[in-house]
Design goal:
By secondary structure, the protein is an all-alpha fold. The chain contains four helices and no strands. Pfam families: bHLH_ILI.
Length: about 90
Amino acid sequence: MSGRSGAITDEEINELVSKLQSLLPESRRRRSAGRVSASKLLKETCSYIKGLHREVEDLSDRLSDLMATMDSNSPQAEIIRSLLRP
């Protein structure tokens, strides 16, 4: 960012938008079709993040259901626990 108090230049905004666009799978496909507006890109980003949150919740629920049906001492349960450890 520039040295001004909290101000950001158009060039910096364009650079940040470009970096954000490179992180979104949907934007990558459209990159060749031309530049996406910053507001549209921010909306796509929010939508993408919400979708990721839904996927995480769904996978967490499925994993909980799976663990509830397993013998907690089984080798499969131990493998799953080992994968979930940091």
